Structures are given as structure tokens and as C-alpha cells.
Amino acid sequence: MGRVAPPIITSVGHDAINSPADVFIIQSLLNERLPKPHTAVPITGVIDPGTVLAIQAYQAVVMGMNPPTGHIAPGSATYYSLAARPLVEQAPPPTVRFGRVGIVPPDVLSAAIASKLRWRIPVSVTLAQWVVESAWGAAMPPDSNNPFGIKAVGSQPAVESGTREVVDGADVFIRARFRRFESLEEAFDQHGRLLASNPVYSVAMRFTHDPEAFADALTGVYATDPRYGYTLKWVINNYGFKQHDQ
Description:
Order of helices and strands: EHHEHHHEEHHHH
Oligomer: single chain
Mean pLDDT: 91
Strand content: 5-15%
């Protein structure tokens, strides 16, 4: 027989209460349940961007939630998916290419390096945006090859999907048209082109030598989340992405 996970009393994750005991439980369950191999989620009892992204990756890969919320309420579907079954004698984890927390596939790294060579976007920033915008590649608009949340304009090839925006400080889930790309490589190239050529990112492009300043300059411009730059910098530093900028 397997052990049964304890319940959580308060919500955990994005826009949650995050009491230390409940965060500790969820971090432990994520390490048991995320598709392996993955980088371990530190069991600290303190919520951080990595734990939220791990929740999103789990929701996207295992539960098929799109967009994932990154939020776990007591008694919710996400909690029961993580905890209801015994942690032994469980169904095998899904075989997935994306959604492996802490692991950047070789083709993703190659595409980020190509973007740096052509468009001067720091590799660490491109990788961090890939992580944050798509929960380690697991949560893209269906059939889009678009891990960056790039919106479609005019007659560009597009798919419609749900997304989270921050409006007046509150989360709002809406439907939007997202670009559809023929390949992941095309998506990375167009992401680099967008940042390098659109005037709204001109401030960021002044900091191609400084990934953290570049990330801060994307806040409120690339995304509506006021903590966007902070989250990108957390990902860059905690997963060692700066090594790829050399």
C-alpha cells in the first residue's frame, strides 16, 4: 500500500495564501508527481516562481489544463490529482517531451542561441521567456508551436486560446488570437525579430549585454504582469541560464 498525502488547508501557488506548511506539502508532491526526469523543486515551505511554474507544468502536462492557473485550492482538481491516489502503485507518469521542470531540450537551446546570433537577444532571456510563457514548453496554444504567447495581428496564421492577463491588478482570463508557427525554430526566430525590431522594445534592446536589465525592461511591455521582470530574473539565476550568454 502507498502512503496518502496530507490535505492542504490554504491555497498554494499564484495569487494564493501560501502558508508554509501547505507550500511544503505541494512542493513534496510535485517532486513525486512531475514527469521524470526533472530538476527537484526545493522543499522550503516558501513559495517562489519556480514552484508556481512547476505547478503550471504539472497542470498542463498531467491534467491537460490550458492555460494552467498555477493555483491549487484545498479540495481542487489539481490537489486531488497530486494527492488523492497513493504515491505507490500509481499509473506510470506520462511520456512527454516538454514540461520537464529544469530541463531545456537541445533544440530549444539551439533556437535560443540562433536568436542571439541573428537578433542579439540574450540567450538567458529567451530561455527564461520560454519557461515563463509556456511552463517549460508544456502550455502553448494548441497546434501553434508558439511558446512565447505572441499574439496574431491581421491575417497572420492564428489559433484562438485562453490566456491570463493582469488588468487593474487583477487576473482576468480571456480568449485571444495567437500566432501559429510552422516550427519551434520559426517561433524563436520571430520572437527575436519582434524584440529587435518593434519600437516598444527599444529600451530593452539597449541592454543586450545585461540580461537582468533586459528582463526588467520587458515588464509592462511584453506582459501585463507587474512582476514579469522579477520572475524572468529568478528563472535566469536559479536555473543557471547566464552560462549560455557567454
